[in-house]
Amino acid sequence: MVTPTGEHLTVNDYQYPDLFWALRGGGGGTYGVVTSVTYRVYGSLPVACYILQANAENTTIMKELTTGMLQLQRNLTDNGWGGYGNLTNLTMNFLAIAPNVSAEAANATLQPWTEYLQSQGISATAGVFQFPSFYAWYKSQFTNARENGANVLITSRLLSRDTIANQSKDVAEILVDCEGSFL
Amino acid sequence: MVAGGAVSQINPESAGINPSWRNAVLQAGCGVFWEEGASSTVIGGLISQLKAWTSSLSDAAPNDGAYFNEVRSSTLSFTFAD
Predict the structure, then answer these.
(1) How many Cα neighbours within 13 Å face the side chain of B60?
(2) Mind listing the pLDDT tens digit for each residue in A105-155?
(3) Which of A78, A133, A165, B38 is the most buried (most CB within 10 A)?
(4) pTM of the model
Protein backbone atom coordinates (compact mmCIF):
# COMPACT_ATOMS: atom_id res chain seq x y z
CA MET A 1 0.00 0.00 0.00
CA VAL A 2 0.96 3.66 -0.35
CA THR A 3 0.32 5.81 2.71
CA PRO A 4 -0.77 9.48 2.64
CA THR A 5 2.86 10.35 3.47
CA GLY A 6 4.02 8.63 0.28
CA GLU A 7 5.60 5.53 1.83
CA HIS A 8 5.22 2.24 -0.03
CA LEU A 9 4.67 -0.42 2.65
CA THR A 10 4.11 -4.17 2.82
CA VAL A 11 1.41 -4.66 5.46
CA ASN A 12 0.54 -7.97 7.15
CA ASP A 13 0.28 -9.65 10.57
CA TYR A 14 4.01 -9.07 11.14
CA GLN A 15 4.76 -5.75 9.47
CA TYR A 16 2.56 -2.76 10.41
CA PRO A 17 -0.10 -5.05 11.98
CA ASP A 18 -2.09 -2.00 13.14
CA LEU A 19 -2.49 -0.81 9.55
CA PHE A 20 -3.28 -4.36 8.43
CA TRP A 21 -6.07 -4.48 11.04
CA ALA A 22 -7.44 -1.07 10.04
CA LEU A 23 -7.42 -1.90 6.32
CA ARG A 24 -9.58 -4.97 6.95
CA GLY A 25 -12.32 -2.91 8.59
CA GLY A 26 -14.83 -0.28 7.57
CA GLY A 27 -13.29 2.48 5.50
CA GLY A 28 -10.10 0.78 4.30
CA GLY A 29 -9.54 3.55 1.76
CA THR A 30 -9.09 6.02 4.61
CA TYR A 31 -5.58 4.74 5.36
CA GLY A 32 -3.96 4.75 1.95
CA VAL A 33 -4.03 3.20 -1.48
CA VAL A 34 -3.74 -0.58 -1.57
CA THR A 35 -1.73 -1.51 -4.66
CA SER A 36 -1.62 -5.31 -4.32
CA VAL A 37 -3.46 -7.90 -2.20
CA THR A 38 -2.99 -11.60 -1.40
CA TYR A 39 -6.26 -13.27 -0.38
CA ARG A 40 -6.95 -16.54 1.33
CA VAL A 41 -10.09 -17.64 -0.54
CA TYR A 42 -12.87 -20.06 0.25
CA GLY A 43 -14.95 -22.37 -1.92
CA SER A 44 -17.96 -20.89 -3.71
CA LEU A 45 -21.30 -21.28 -1.91
CA PRO A 46 -24.90 -21.06 -3.08
CA VAL A 47 -26.69 -17.81 -2.28
CA ALA A 48 -30.30 -17.20 -1.26
CA CYS A 49 -31.80 -13.84 -2.20
CA TYR A 50 -34.92 -12.18 -0.78
CA ILE A 51 -36.51 -9.42 -2.84
CA LEU A 52 -39.41 -7.25 -1.65
CA GLN A 53 -41.31 -4.44 -3.29
CA ALA A 54 -44.14 -3.09 -1.16
CA ASN A 55 -46.63 -0.26 -1.53
CA ALA A 56 -48.48 1.56 1.25
CA GLU A 57 -51.76 3.37 0.81
CA ASN A 58 -50.67 6.33 2.90
CA THR A 59 -47.75 7.65 4.92
CA THR A 60 -49.14 6.38 8.24
CA ILE A 61 -49.20 2.82 6.91
CA MET A 62 -45.76 3.36 5.38
CA LYS A 63 -44.33 4.32 8.77
CA GLU A 64 -45.84 1.21 10.38
CA LEU A 65 -44.43 -0.93 7.57
CA THR A 66 -40.98 0.62 8.06
CA THR A 67 -41.15 0.02 11.82
CA GLY A 68 -41.87 -3.67 11.12
CA MET A 69 -39.04 -3.83 8.59
CA LEU A 70 -36.54 -2.36 11.07
CA GLN A 71 -37.57 -4.96 13.64
CA LEU A 72 -37.26 -7.77 11.06
CA GLN A 73 -33.58 -6.91 10.69
CA ARG A 74 -32.77 -8.68 13.96
CA ASN A 75 -34.11 -11.95 12.50
CA LEU A 76 -32.16 -11.48 9.31
CA THR A 77 -28.81 -10.46 10.76
CA ASP A 78 -28.91 -13.22 13.39
CA ASN A 79 -29.32 -15.73 10.56
CA GLY A 80 -26.47 -14.44 8.43
CA TRP A 81 -28.35 -12.17 6.00
CA GLY A 82 -27.13 -8.86 4.62
CA GLY A 83 -28.83 -6.40 2.30
CA TYR A 84 -30.29 -2.96 1.84
CA GLY A 85 -33.55 -1.16 1.32
CA ASN A 86 -34.79 2.16 -0.01
CA LEU A 87 -37.88 4.09 0.99
CA THR A 88 -40.14 6.69 -0.50
CA ASN A 89 -43.13 8.02 1.44
CA LEU A 90 -45.31 5.28 -0.11
CA THR A 91 -42.99 2.49 -1.27
CA MET A 92 -40.32 0.15 0.06
CA ASN A 93 -37.75 -1.79 -1.92
CA PHE A 94 -35.61 -4.31 -0.09
CA LEU A 95 -33.05 -6.87 -1.18
CA ALA A 96 -31.03 -9.22 1.05
CA ILE A 97 -28.81 -12.25 0.52
CA ALA A 98 -27.39 -15.03 2.68
CA PRO A 99 -24.74 -17.61 1.81
CA ASN A 100 -25.50 -21.33 2.01
CA VAL A 101 -29.09 -21.01 3.25
CA SER A 102 -31.80 -23.39 2.04
CA ALA A 103 -35.13 -22.10 0.76
CA GLU A 104 -36.77 -23.72 3.81
CA ALA A 105 -34.43 -21.93 6.25
CA ALA A 106 -34.90 -18.65 4.37
CA ASN A 107 -38.67 -18.94 4.51
CA ALA A 108 -38.51 -19.81 8.24
CA THR A 109 -36.49 -16.65 8.94
CA LEU A 110 -38.87 -14.51 6.87
CA GLN A 111 -42.13 -16.13 8.05
CA PRO A 112 -42.97 -13.59 10.82
CA TRP A 113 -42.47 -10.77 8.33
CA THR A 114 -44.51 -12.49 5.58
CA GLU A 115 -47.33 -13.07 8.07
CA TYR A 116 -47.13 -9.46 9.16
CA LEU A 117 -47.47 -8.23 5.57
CA GLN A 118 -50.47 -10.48 5.01
CA SER A 119 -52.14 -9.50 8.29
CA GLN A 120 -51.78 -5.81 7.44
CA GLY A 121 -53.08 -6.27 3.90
CA ILE A 122 -49.92 -4.69 2.46
CA SER A 123 -49.67 -4.83 -1.32
CA ALA A 124 -46.29 -6.49 -1.90
CA THR A 125 -44.33 -8.54 -4.40
CA ALA A 126 -41.82 -10.71 -2.57
CA GLY A 127 -39.92 -13.94 -2.97
CA VAL A 128 -36.83 -16.01 -2.14
CA PHE A 129 -34.62 -16.92 -5.08
CA GLN A 130 -31.74 -19.40 -5.07
CA PHE A 131 -28.47 -18.91 -6.97
CA PRO A 132 -25.64 -21.46 -7.35
CA SER A 133 -22.97 -18.87 -6.42
CA PHE A 134 -22.44 -15.25 -5.39
CA TYR A 135 -21.27 -14.45 -8.91
CA ALA A 136 -24.43 -15.93 -10.44
CA TRP A 137 -26.45 -13.75 -8.07
CA TYR A 138 -24.30 -10.70 -8.86
CA LYS A 139 -24.82 -11.14 -12.60
CA SER A 140 -28.58 -11.42 -12.06
CA GLN A 141 -28.69 -8.06 -10.28
CA PHE A 142 -25.98 -5.98 -11.92
CA THR A 143 -26.19 -6.70 -15.62
CA ASN A 144 -25.66 -3.18 -16.90
CA ALA A 145 -22.53 -1.72 -15.35
CA ARG A 146 -22.37 1.95 -16.24
CA GLU A 147 -20.99 5.23 -15.00
CA ASN A 148 -21.98 6.05 -11.47
CA GLY A 149 -21.48 8.74 -8.90
CA ALA A 150 -23.75 11.54 -7.74
CA ASN A 151 -23.71 14.84 -5.91
CA VAL A 152 -24.86 13.61 -2.54
CA LEU A 153 -24.36 14.20 1.18
CA ILE A 154 -25.65 11.66 3.65
CA THR A 155 -26.21 11.26 7.35
CA SER A 156 -26.33 7.83 8.94
CA ARG A 157 -26.58 5.94 12.22
CA LEU A 158 -25.50 2.44 13.19
CA LEU A 159 -28.54 1.30 15.17
CA SER A 160 -28.00 -1.00 18.13
CA ARG A 161 -30.20 -3.92 19.07
CA ASP A 162 -31.55 -1.82 21.94
CA THR A 163 -32.47 1.03 19.61
CA ILE A 164 -34.22 -1.37 17.22
CA ALA A 165 -36.16 -2.89 20.13
CA ASN A 166 -37.26 0.43 21.65
CA GLN A 167 -36.98 3.22 19.09
CA SER A 168 -37.97 1.61 15.77
CA LYS A 169 -41.08 3.77 15.51
CA ASP A 170 -39.13 7.01 15.94
CA VAL A 171 -36.46 5.96 13.47
CA ALA A 172 -39.10 4.82 10.95
CA GLU A 173 -40.76 8.23 11.21
CA ILE A 174 -37.49 9.95 10.24
CA LEU A 175 -36.62 7.45 7.49
CA VAL A 176 -39.99 7.80 5.77
CA ASP A 177 -39.89 11.61 6.08
CA CYS A 178 -36.41 11.75 4.48
CA GLU A 179 -37.18 8.93 2.02
CA GLY A 180 -34.03 7.28 3.35
CA SER A 181 -32.36 3.92 3.22
CA PHE A 182 -31.25 1.13 5.52
CA LEU A 183 -28.59 -1.57 5.16
CA MET B 1 -27.52 -5.17 7.51
CA VAL B 2 -23.81 -4.70 7.50
CA ALA B 3 -23.36 -5.39 11.17
CA GLY B 4 -24.54 -7.13 14.31
CA GLY B 5 -25.82 -10.68 14.34
CA ALA B 6 -23.42 -13.19 12.80
CA VAL B 7 -20.84 -10.46 12.08
CA SER B 8 -20.68 -9.49 15.75
CA GLN B 9 -19.68 -13.04 16.71
CA ILE B 10 -16.35 -13.10 14.89
CA ASN B 11 -13.00 -12.35 16.51
CA PRO B 12 -12.92 -8.56 17.16
CA GLU B 13 -9.25 -8.55 16.15
CA SER B 14 -10.18 -9.70 12.66
CA ALA B 15 -11.48 -6.35 11.45
CA GLY B 16 -10.88 -2.70 12.35
CA ILE B 17 -14.35 -1.27 12.86
CA ASN B 18 -15.61 1.16 15.45
CA PRO B 19 -17.60 0.11 18.53
CA SER B 20 -20.98 1.29 17.22
CA TRP B 21 -20.58 -0.96 14.22
CA ARG B 22 -19.84 -4.00 16.38
CA ASN B 23 -23.07 -3.50 18.32
CA ALA B 24 -25.28 -2.48 15.41
CA VAL B 25 -28.11 -4.43 13.83
CA LEU B 26 -28.35 -2.15 10.82
CA GLN B 27 -27.40 1.23 9.47
CA ALA B 28 -30.08 3.78 8.66
CA GLY B 29 -29.47 6.89 6.60
CA CYS B 30 -30.88 9.93 4.84
CA GLY B 31 -29.35 11.78 1.92
CA VAL B 32 -29.65 15.00 -0.07
CA PHE B 33 -28.90 15.13 -3.81
CA TRP B 34 -28.40 17.95 -6.28
CA GLU B 35 -27.81 18.38 -9.98
CA GLU B 36 -24.38 19.29 -11.33
CA GLY B 37 -24.07 23.07 -11.34
CA ALA B 38 -26.60 23.71 -8.55
CA SER B 39 -26.07 27.04 -6.80
CA SER B 40 -24.47 27.30 -3.37
CA THR B 41 -27.82 28.62 -2.09
CA VAL B 42 -29.56 25.43 -3.19
CA ILE B 43 -26.80 23.22 -1.76
CA GLY B 44 -26.76 25.23 1.48
CA GLY B 45 -30.50 24.68 1.87
CA LEU B 46 -30.07 20.95 1.37
CA ILE B 47 -27.28 20.83 3.95
CA SER B 48 -29.58 22.58 6.45
CA GLN B 49 -32.20 19.88 5.78
CA LEU B 50 -29.57 17.17 6.27
CA LYS B 51 -28.51 18.69 9.60
CA ALA B 52 -32.13 18.64 10.77
CA TRP B 53 -32.43 14.93 9.93
CA THR B 54 -29.11 14.23 11.66
CA SER B 55 -30.43 15.97 14.74
CA SER B 56 -33.64 13.87 14.63
CA LEU B 57 -31.62 10.66 14.27
CA SER B 58 -29.48 11.67 17.24
CA ASP B 59 -32.62 12.25 19.32
CA ALA B 60 -34.04 8.83 18.33
CA ALA B 61 -30.76 6.96 18.91
CA PRO B 62 -28.69 9.08 21.30
CA ASN B 63 -26.22 6.30 22.16
CA ASP B 64 -25.53 5.10 18.61
CA GLY B 65 -22.61 6.31 16.51
CA ALA B 66 -21.94 6.42 12.79
CA TYR B 67 -19.63 4.92 10.21
CA PHE B 68 -16.75 7.39 10.38
CA ASN B 69 -16.49 7.92 6.61
CA GLU B 70 -20.08 9.17 6.60
CA VAL B 71 -19.63 11.95 9.13
CA ARG B 72 -19.16 15.46 7.79
CA SER B 73 -17.23 18.38 9.19
CA SER B 74 -20.49 20.31 8.83
CA THR B 75 -22.22 18.20 11.49
CA LEU B 76 -22.61 19.80 14.87
CA SER B 77 -20.21 17.55 16.79
CA PHE B 78 -18.55 15.33 14.24
CA THR B 79 -16.31 13.52 16.72
CA PHE B 80 -19.45 11.97 18.15
CA ALA B 81 -21.12 11.66 14.76
CA ASP B 82 -23.69 14.21 15.81
Answers:
(1) 26
(2) 999 999 999 999 999 889 999 999 999 999 999 999 887 777 778 899 999
(3) A78
(4) 0.86
Q: Kindly determine whether residue A156 and residue B28, on different chains, have CB atoms separated by under 8 Å.
A: yes
Contact call for A26 and B16, based on CB within 8 A: yes
Task: Locate the domains of chain A by residue range.
Answer: 1-40, 47-144+152-182
Instruction: With CA atoms as reference, report the closest residue to A183 among B1, B15, B66, B16.
Output: B1
Chain centroid offset of residue A107 CA:
18
Q: Which residues contact A169 (CB under 8 A, 6 or more apart)?
A: A63, A67
* pLDDT score at B6: 61
CATH class entry, domain A47-144+152-182: alpha beta
Q: Give the mutation candidate from B8, B30, B73 for the A interface (greatest A CB count, under 10 A).
A: B30
Flag whether residue A167 sits within 8 Å of chain B, measured between CB atoms. yes
Chain A: closest CA distance from residue B81 (Å): 8
- Comparing CB atoms, the residue among A78, A167, A178 nearest residue B61 is A167
* Element counts in chain A: helices (H) and strands (E): 5, 6
In tens, the pLDDT along B47-56 reads 999 999 988 9
ipTM above 0.95, yes or no: no
